[in-house]
Write a structure and sequence with these properties.
5 helices, mainly beta
Length: 646
């Protein structure tokens, strides 16, 4: 079951929540927002951060976030697992984990009514998703740090562990079933394991036709040559079907593997974007690749690396590149790649049909996964990237096939320092625009991937401020009533003189991150009792975001819709105003007398008053003319019924 946006039904203006099921869409229901003024932070709660290490930094950061189908949020702090209501931030449950995670950049996965968490020491622990009671624990023989996402697929969870650059560690597949329903620490066994020198770091598998495909570390110390590989195994047995080795100077595979249309996309830490293809009997035949680090070095961006998961959309591939240093303006940015080229340009270190369309800077490294927000009304792919620098802003890329440069950039100023760390000048950089900025309380570095819920439009984020946050577009208010008529694209509410708003059967929907039981006082109507002088009704919902997308604090805000009014003085006027199209006299039947009234109006013999005008405009084009008479006549003769909504 999914929770829909808040819905308020009014016969007495009582606020009531409606809950219905929703199916997941292939693209975003709401394509996000393109400027900070249109974004809000719905809530933000701080967890951990009260214990400091020897460097003065928090030693108990919250882990990253997982969300379920009902927008509940799951994460951990030290050895405590939390469950929050994703719409309010309220804590719903807590559970105790058997261990901790040192580098908490990955979060739980929720599936099959359970929560699965990867823990240091090579452990996976399963919890009941409702109560957070422990169900079982898996422990791997080689142990290792939990630095990979934990992924659910077809009755099993997958994750990898890491013990160091040259030490063995395992990638594991574990069935999610619970054998002993009474135990809280049942010892669970793996379905299969795969051991690699150097282990696994930040990679996650893609699945296709019973095969799991994941990447490995290269088994060498930093600066030395090794050999990472793409590995394809049977999901059920772990039997290795194929491996595809990277070049010995490509580095580690630290991206998730992305499957799209017969191809597996991935990146390596030294900046290579690669595609493996299912062809000629091969599962992961090495195909197209592009050495982005080398290409961008020739453009003045030296020393770039990559841990980015590619985003593939049609003929476009989006990859975030990590710059030099952590303080910003180190050359970091987003590479937009074109898959549609038939031949790569000369002297480009690539192979196959993959080419750099353009590169655009960000002020900080974008090491977390980008968020594909969908395709907007103008046909642009909309992608958000969170920067891993002190500001931690969210940048937006809008792109479509054929573009050779960014649609929009903003000038950002880099402060240049001398050898004594004194500012001596500024340098301008053209960067992607920020779509959301955080205030002083909430801004911080962010290397954890946000979680995005398509239906509500909420982005859940954890950064180094130790806050769990919910952000999204400002909500929209939609007023509906059986007393509405539609004049062109405009809605008009028909009311009686002296009628009160609580006497009108209406429904108010508020989308976005507004849901749950709400107080009646949060719904505001600009008019209580209608008079003939009234021309507009404003329906507002008062909500209480923490801040807006510019970083400014907000104590309360209104989201509103204006509805035109037509207030009648007599029952006859009211009846005619709400009549169906073509029924000009409001008799309930479209007949020749209605045609006569429209004809008299057109000839200037007798004008139709404002109460019958909507019914007379049969095709709702904003004008009463002979076309409307023709539609009335066709309806009366049974040739074609009038189907224009009133």
């Amino acid at each position: 079951m999914r929770r829909r946006p808040a819905k308020f039904l009014s016969a007495c203006c009582a606020a009531t929540l409606a809950v219905s099921s929703l199916s997941m869409g292939a693209s975003a229901e709401r394509a996000g927002f393109n400027k900070p003024e249109d974004g809000v932070m719905y809530w933000a709660n701080k967890f951990g951060g009260d214990k400091l290490d020897d460097w003065g930094f928090p030693s108990n950061y919250p882990g990253n976030i997982g969300i379920d189908e009902e927008n509940n949020v799951y994460f951990y702090v030290e050895n405590v697992l939390y469950k929050l209501d994703g719409y309010t931030g309220k804590t719903l449950a807590q559970g105790k984990m058997t261990g901790t995670v040192n580098y908490s950049t990955k979060g739980p996965v929720i599936a099959d009514g359970k929560v699965f968490v990867a823990l240091d020491g090579g452990k996976i622990q399963a919890f009941d998703a409702e109560t957070l009671e422990s169900l079982w624990i898996y422990t791997n023989k080689n142990g290792g740090g939990a630095n990979c996402d934990i992924i659910y697929n077809d009755g099993a969870v997958y994750t990898g562990f890491w013990n160091g650059d040259e030490a063995d560690a395992d990638y594991v597949c574990v069935d999610v079933t619970t054998d002993d329903e009474t135990a809280t620490d049942e010892e669970h066994a793996a379905r299969w394991t795969y051991t690699n020198k150097g282990g696994f770091y930040w990679t996650a598998p893609a699945f296709e036709d019973g095969i799991a495909v994941f990447g490995t570390e290269d088994g060498a110390k930093l600066g030395e040559k090794g050999s990472a590989a793409l590995v394809a195994v049977d999901e059920k047995t772990g039997e290795v079907k194929e491996t595809a080795a990277m070049a010995d100077d490509d580095g580690d595979i630290r991206s998730k593997i992305v499957y799209d249309n017969g191809r597996f996309f991935y990146t390596s830490s030294n900046g290579v974007v690669a595609i493996s293809e299912k062809e000629d009997g091969s599962i992961i035949k090495r195909g197209s690749y592009l050495d982005l680090s080398e290409i961008l070095a020739k453009k003045g961006y030296e020393g770039l690396t990559c841990t980015s998961t590619p985003i593939v959309c049609g003929s476009r591939v989006y990859v975030a590149m990590k710059g030099v240093g952590f303080n910003g303006f180190g050359g970091a940015g987003i590479a937009v790649l074109d898959l549609s080229v038939t031949e790569p340009a000369d002297n480009i270190p690539s192979h196959g049909h993959l080419e750099l369309a353009y590169y655009v800077e960000t002020t900080g490294n974008c090491q977390a996964d980008g968020i594909f927000m969908g395709v907007d009304d103008e046909g642009y792919n909309v992608i958000y990237y969170v920067e891993n620098n002190a500001e931690g802003s969210i940048r937006v890329l809008r792109d479509k096939a054929g573009m050779t440069g960014p649609l929009k950039t903003v000038d950002e100023a880099e402060t240049v320092y001398d050898a004594n760390y004194k500012p001596v000048s500024t340098k301008k950089h053209q960067c992607l625009p920020a779509v959301f900025k955080f205030g002083d309380t909430y801004k911080q570095y962010c290397a954890t991937s946000p979680q995005y819920d398509k239906e509500s439009g909420i982005i859940y984020l954890r950064n180094d401020s130790c806050h769990i946050m919910a952000i999204g577009a400002k909500p929209n208010v939609e007023f509906d009533s059986d007393s509405l008529i539609h004049q062109g694209k405009n809605k008009t509410l028909v009311a009686k003189n002296g009628q009160r708003i609580c006497e009108i059967n209406c429904e108010v929907k508020v989308d976005g991150g507004i849901t749950g039981v709400t107080d009646e006082e949060e719904l505001i109507f600009s008019i209580d009792e209608f008079t003939t002088a009234d021309e507009m009704l404003t329906v507002s919902h008062k909500f209480f975001p923490v801040a807006d997308g510019t970083g400014e604090a907000v104590t309360s805000a209104l989201v509103s819709e204006d509805i035109a009014l037509l207030v009648t003085e007599t029952d006859d006027q009211y009846k005619r105003a709400l009549a169906d199209r073509g029924d000009v006299d409001g008799s309930g039947v479209v007949d020749v007398s209605d045609i006569a009234k429209v004809a008299a109006h057109i000839k200037g013999m007798k004008a139709i008053d404002k109460y019958s005008l909507n019914a007379a405009d049969v095709n709702n084009d904003g004008d009463v003319n002979v076309t409307d008479i023709a539609l009335q006549a066709a309806h009366i003769k049974g040739i074609k019924a009038i189907d224009t909504p009133k």
